Description:
The structure holds two protein chains of two kinds. Chain A has helices at about 15-40, 80-85, 90-100, 115-120, 205-220, 245-250, 330-335, 380-390, 395-420; strands spanning about 105-110, 120-125, 130-135, 140-145, 150-155, 175-180, 185-195, 200, 230-235, 240, 260-265, 275-280, 305-310, 315, 325, 345-355, 360-370. By secondary structure, chain A is of the alpha+beta class. The model of chain B has no long low-confidence stretch (mean pLDDT about 90). The interface between A and B is large, with 44 and 80 residues.
Amino acid sequence: MAPHDLRRPFKRPAISDQQRRRELSLQRQAQNRHDAQHHARRLASTLLFLQPPQSDPEADPEPDPEIAPEPESEQVASPSELDVREASKLKGAQARKWFARQLMLPEWMIDVPDQLAQDWYVFARPSGKRCFVVSTNGTTVSRLRNGSMLHRFPSALPNGARTRDASGSAQSYTILDCIFHEADQAYYVIDMVCWRGYSLHDCAAEFRFFWLNSKLVETGAFDPPSQYHRYRFSLVPVYNCDQSGLSAAYTEPVPYVKDGLLFYNKHAHYQTGNTPLALVWKDENCSQYVIDTDSKGQVPSQQQVVLELQDNGNLTTSDEPHVVFGCLDGDFMQKSGLCSGNLLRFAISNGGLSFLDGKLEKADLHYLGKSNRARAFADSYSKVMFQYMARHSPLKVDDLLASISSSIEQENKPSDEEMVG
Amino acid sequence: MAMEVTQILLNAQAVDGTVRKQAEENLKQFQEQNLPSFLFSLAGELSNDDKPVESRKLAGLILKNALDAKEQHRKLELVQRWLSLDNSVKAQIKACLLKTLSSPAPDARSTASQVIAKVAGIDLPHKQWPELVGALLSNIHQLPAHTRQATLETLGYICEEVSPDAVDQDHVNKILTAVVQGMNASESNNDVRLAATRALYNALGFAQANFSNDMERDYIMRVVCEATLCPELKIRQAAFECLVAISSTYYEKLAPYIQDIFNITAKAVKEDEEPVALQAIEFWSSVCDEEIDILEEYGGDFTGDSDIPCFYFVKQALPVLVPMLLETLLKQEEDQDQDEGAWNIAMAGGTCLGLIARTVGDDVVPLVMPFIEENITKPDWRQREAATYAFGSILEGPSPDKLIPLVNIALSFMLTALMQDPNNHVKDTTAWTLGRMFEFLHGSALETPIITQTNIQQIITVLLQSMKDVPNVAEKACGALYFLAQGYEDAGSSSSPLAPFFQEIVQALLTVTHREDAGESRLRTAAYETLNEVVRCSTDETAPMVLQLVPLIMMELHQTLEGQKLSSDEREKQNELQGLLCGCLQVIIQKLGSSEATKYVFMQYADQMMELFLRVFASRSATAHEEAMLAIGALAYAAGADFVKYMPEFYRYLEMGLQNFEDYQVCAITVGVVGDICRALEDKVLPYCDGIMTQLLKDLSSNQLHRSVKPPIFSCFGDIALAIGENFEKYLMYAMPMLQSAAELSAHISGADDDMLEYTNSLRNGILEAYSGIFQGFKGSSKTQLLMPYAPHVLQFLDSLYMEKDMDDAVSKTAIGVLGDLADTLGSNAGPLIQQSVSSRDFLSECLSSDDHLIRESAEWAKLAISRAISF
Lengths: 421, 872
């Protein structure tokens, strides 16, 4: 037992650079592993929302170089993302198409789905601009359906303002599906696409609405506007689509101007583009805009539709698969300087639409001209049909209520029998 | 044979190599033929007073080596071997050993003491040899002095060898009684007293109960304090060592004695011989260590649940302690800065002063400043050096508000001294002090900068000039530059104040690396390390200059690989240089690889660089291997999928690294590089996976490999699975059972100490990262059902981790993520299983409301994935 060495480090940094190199390597590896894990969990799939469309100077008049984040070089995109990343560099109409595809677009309700009471939610749609709101890296941006920017502002959403919010990485983003309501300058949140970097695309509406309710309240997004929170966010009351829920959505007063009712299937995922699992329905009582108006705000005497011209001259809706409304001959196309991909405006003339076995057989179309260049899509089949029905034999709220009560009766019958048996 | 043993043992120490070899061979044969008889012969030899001391000592040494080894696996083998020996043989061996303690030959006694401790180290934890302590202590008072001395020495070794819980309190009491009596002033034999004092040092860890008893503690403390006054220097020194050990083991019991101890230590520092004075200073350094730990842990707020309160002993002693230490600073030795092994009272005093500054903060400043002001301009270099050292020592601890005004005044004085002071010692300390200023008072976190537009030019000019000074001064100047650069590390992509000097600094550092005398005082290493830091903290504007460094450093590395026919000394230096150059390239790769713009240009060197790294593997130096491997990992990360072209050549070195059990650091780093490669190559790594997996599985089952490598190996399974997806299928049958049994072992570890808990948590984290990677790898594949059979166990593992309540935040985060990954990949198939698990309810909801945002993030992901899995 010799005396113990008591020498202490003298005039030396406590850590050697070699040890430092080792630790920095380990840190880098851990970070890379973490990124790979995130990537695998598909949390990075909507990363590209970060980039504003450099393409559309009209829509984005004041690009702010300080705020607009450069994409991180490490975030190498996978092939599936590359498509989207490239899409964000698209110009004009194509850019608008791409951005529009990020939203779930309800079909118009042309018949009443089964199990409305069991499987659906209903809520009154606020009147205003449908947009998605993205918060990340200390700023919040709202974009309209056509991809143009509505506002860039600080908000209480996660990473939505340059405040010291220690929770979560600053790069993670939150994406809300909203309607901006002019009258009270508020964003009404109707759905949640992404929360703190977690994609909710694959979650059922039931879960998304639950998440929306429980998460948003924690952020202070519902607070009145302040320096770091320029616009108030609000939720809309969502009801189970039973008799009382439907009546409430239809008649109960809300702080916003209603524009029809939205129906969401509880089990449906957030599917971008047109989906029959979300439906919109309107009548004069709950919307000022039941029948489409023209650019001057007048209801035209004849219903107008926008259709897409295909290679073979077919005129189709925006649906996948397309529904064919008619056909142009080559001569006419040549004479009018039209080519495939053009969006064309037609009036439905007196011959109207005729059906055979529930399928469109013939449409009496009258060519008006090319559509407004701001349009990204042709009309959907359900929109044309809803408008057509609105002019001729509208689906009434009583029809919806009746369908709910009849389905309840049907459901009760067999159970009665069982109890007897 | 027994008759010949003596001769063989003597021959084994013969000068003639042939004789020696023959004897060693004989011993080996004997051992292999009949181990019990062999060991007994050795014990007999050791105990036989008629035999020569040389053969007895060697017999004891071989016996000792038959019981213990440095390598963990070998040690375990030896323990098992001893335990399985026939009891009667063991009893005979033990009897011989105990008998030897009475031998008149001091070497034989001392050897026997050590062997007895080794046997006790095995036997006591296994409840064998319960009569040992009794046998040692019976009749101790009647024994002759030399036997008492040997007995006490044996007790000391036993306490060093055995963990306290293997000895029952009754025996502890007996040992302490004997030891403290042996230390007492009434013991007239100094050898006995010294042995007893040294034994107490080792026995302190056993004395928890006795230190909790006021009477016993008072008695022990009185005896220790008295022993510090013993006329015999070695006893005083050993007694102070006991005080040092008490200050860290029983800090919370010191209060009643601190005034006395202060007087004793102050007297020793002033008057006693250096070995004793050093221990006296060490006592206060050790008290500082304790108080720094306590204050750091509790931030100075004493709540009811903090175990040990801070008694502020240092703060109370400050007015007397500081002047006492300042006096020691004047007792420098000439040339202590050139001597690696130097340790003297001035160095110890300065070090203690630095610790005091960290303990008490601002309060130290007014006590030190007058000393500095009085001495810093004196003609005697000792006074100038002591003043400078005092200033450098107090730069860590006090608040910037207090220090910055002083530093602003001192800075230009120091720069001048570094240029003009005639004394090397003063210059060395001055450069070191500048480094401390930059380390602690320069950086983006500080509001008022000490380095400004107006003085930066002068600072850099002086430091670069000083790098031409003698090696020890130049090395400190490099160190100062290191911290100067580090202070600008947050500059990011904006402009760095260092940018205008970048070229000049790099040039100067490269010049230093080429100095003839760069091998002295660590100078070359310091220059490369500073270069690394300058590169790390550089900004975009100097990227082209960093790029220019690449071919330069590559050329240097190339030259080290060309040297032929080197002496072993030269080769060692060469390997060291290779390590430094690989380290430098690694830093550059990481820097340039992190930005798309520079990466593109830099990658033109990748082929040549890779070739050089592969050649480094031809050397046998572990450090060089490690550095080359780290650099290759960084290169793989930068190169991405392109790295695949290096794989055919690189693969065998990768395998070599994974097989390097001896230098486990190399093995650990290679495992990390496998992860880099998986992420870079993704499914292109597949052709190499059979080999890699085989090696990793071998590593895991080896008991030779250092345990710290095992957690990263598990994580690496996850990296591989994530890269190759469902192709991991063929490894499932090997990897899963390993993960499963490791998981079971790591789930419950009741009663483990902090180290064990920390290790277990890192193991758990590795296992969980493996599961995470495997589940995510199979996601979306048609083969997910292959994972179903493992799901119950994984969930059970998560549940038991949750129940144990001893995982750290990192494990919680990974664990809850695995729950999500499992749900995500297995979907509705695992729905019912998931719903049954505790983790999916209680653990998940705990994590969802965690304060740690990373845990919350993972938990939210898990919640999402589960909701998807059970909603279908």
